[in-house]
Amino acid sequence: MPLHKGSAIDLEVSWLAADGLPHARGRMLMRLLEALSAARSLMEAARALGLSYRHAWGLLGEGARALGAPLVDMGRGRGARLTPLGRKLLEADAHVRSALGAPFERLRVELDGLLVAALPRRRPRLTLRASHDLALGELARLCAPRLDLEIEIRGADDSLAALGRGQCDLAGFHVADALPRAAAAAAALGRWLDPRKHALVHFVTREQGLIARRGSRIRGVHDLARPGVRFIHRQNAPGARSADAGDTSVAAAVAEGRADAGFGLRADATRFKLAFAPLAIERYFFACARTTLRGAAMKALLEALRGAEFASCVAALPGYDASHAGRREALDAALTWVERPRRS
Predict the structure, then answer these.
(1) For residues 95 and 252, is the Cβ–Cβ distance under 8 A?
(2) Measured between alpha carbons, how far is 46 from 31 in angstroms, rounded to an integer?
(3) FRET pair for 9, CA 20 to 30 Å: which of 89, 122, 129, 144?
(4) Helices 247-255/84-115 angle, 10° precision
(5) Top-level CATH class of 1-122?
(6) Is 124-339 in CATH node 3.40.190.290?
(7) Where in the chain is the domain with CATH 3.40.190.290?
(8) What is the dihedral of CA 142, 145, 149, 152, to 10 degrees?
(9) pLDDT tens across 277-324, in order?
């Protein structure tokens, strides 16, 4: 799981390895299994990863030999479906990443601090403090050839405060089309930013809602009041810096049977094959100083946001939309849903 993309440090959570299956191949195998979980065929999954069919088939064979059982059922007329072992590997991968994500990010930040003075920098650089989002890693990857986008995951209010104090170039935050979370975002904007000095760049739109175990008959928040329903709140791992970094942990907990429901993103519900009841649409913005918009670094970021490759990456995330990515807006554009409710 890439946690940082830039010239300094790139850490990954990579755990799957066995005799005949080195770490690099195990990492690629996990990516293939994840692609297969959403694809209709091995060919479709291979194309999504830029692999040949032969390469993908060979990778599945290596995994089956190393682990002692097939990972995919290739029954005629049924396409490619994950076997119980294949599904369990994906669940295990989600659990590992949920448990180690925050410690790895903390370690990455510490290593950056130790090495930053000694590492040469030839490209423009932007520092982003941001609320967690699934598309941030893809954006940093696409920027990497021309821009060092250094991302530090923090809560939205902390990120806006850092921008207001001049401690970062960009602050990432999201605003829901439902109170009270929208009102909280409005208060943070008013507290830390100045409409005369700061502006917004649209990042993505995403769907937030209630993630539930399939078969639980939980279709809305009113069902949470039923006796015996186990609801899990977002709980960050120790040291986590994001107010909503627990979304994936919530989905993993429901998938593993440790809870019946919790709040999270449609993308996480889809990944774990869970039921989802939509509750709100969230718009995610980058706030910055107006002077930052004129720099070469920001120009590179905007080109990546407006590019076809970023749109394609975001389109693969259920409930996400990047149609307005890279659009510059005034600071009060984030508050339109607070003043004018979304039409039903």
Answers:
(1) yes
(2) 10
(3) 89
(4) 160
(5) mainly alpha
(6) yes
(7) 124-339
(8) 70
(9) 999 899 999 999 999 999 999 999 999 999 999 999 999 999 999 999
